[in-house]
C-alpha cells in the first residue's frame, strides 16, 4: 500500500486532468454561444463536486486534505469564466484551483511562433496571472499551475528569460508552478511540445540553466551565478498566505510534472505492442531512484497525472 487516507498534507489530490471536448472545434477553448461548451462546463462542475464529496467521505485525513480542481481544459480563461464555479467543500480552506499555462502561446508553444520573449509577451503573461490572483488568490483560494513550459526552439537565453519572469511573477501571488516534461529535449522550429527537461536515465537536467532559474525564483539555494542574472530583484516579493491551503501551495514552490507517461494518449498502440503505457514518448519507467534524482536536484513537488478513462470498460 503506497498511500492510505491518513497520509499527511504532502499528498495532494487533483480530481481531473484537462477535462475537455476531445476532437471538438472548441476542444481547447470556449464559446458562450456553443451549447456543447456550456454543457461541458456544467459537467466539469458536477464532476468536481462528485469527486470532492467522494474524497471527503473516504475518511482519515482525506476529510481535510488539500484537493485541487480544474475548470474546462484546465484553462485559466475558463477558470475566469463566470459560468465556472468551484465546488462546495465540507472542509475549510482545503481547496485549490488547477490551471495549465503555456503562456503566451506564441512564445511558449506556437511554431514557428516567436523565439524572442518580448515586452508584449511579458505584459500578456503578467495580466493572466494578475487576473487569477484577483479572482482566486485574494479570495483565499490558492492556484497551482500544474503544467507550464516553453518549447525548445533553440532559444535557450530567451527561454531563460521566460522561466524567470513566469515563475517569479507566479511566486509573487503565492502560486506553485510545475514544469510539464515529456522528455522531448531536441529543438525544433516546426514541431511544438519540445518539453524535455529531466534526463530520467542519467538523473540530470538537459538544461540546468532553465531549471536553476526556476528553482532559485522560488527560493532554492543553488550555486549558479548565471541563473541569478536572469532574476529580477524587484519581483521578489514575499507572499503572505491567508490560510493553510495557501501555505501548502506556496511551500510547493517550483515542481516537476511527470508528463502524462502514466496517461499516454496512444495507450492502445502501446498495449497492442506489449508495452506499458508508462513508457509513452520513449521514457523509462518511473522508479524510486528517478524520483530521488529529482529531489537531489532541488525538486520537492511532483505532479503525477493518471487517468483511467481509457480503461473504464475493463
Please tell me about this protein's structure.
With 314 residues, this protein is of the alpha/beta class. It contains ten helices and nine strands. It has helices at residues 35-56, 76-79, 105-108, 119-135, 156-172, 208-217, 225-228, 244-252, 267-272, 288-296, and strands at residues 13-14, 67-70, 95-101, 143-148, 176-180, 198-199, 204-205, 254-257, 302-303. It has a seven-stranded parallel beta sheet. Helix 4 (119-135) runs parallel beside helix 5 (156-172) and helix 5 packs parallel to helix 6. The two termini are 22 Å apart. The mean pLDDT is 91.
How is this fold's topology laid out?
Elements lengths: L12 E2 L20 H22 L10 E4 L5 H4 L15 E7 L3 H4 L10 H17 L7 E6 L7 H17 L3 E5 L17 E2 L4 E2 L2 H10 L7 H4 L15 H9 L1 E4 L9 H6 L15 H9 L5 E2 L11
Parallel strand pairs: 1-2, 2-3, 3-4, 4-5, 5-8, 8-9
Antiparallel strand pairs: 6-7
Helix pairs in contact: 4-5, 5-6
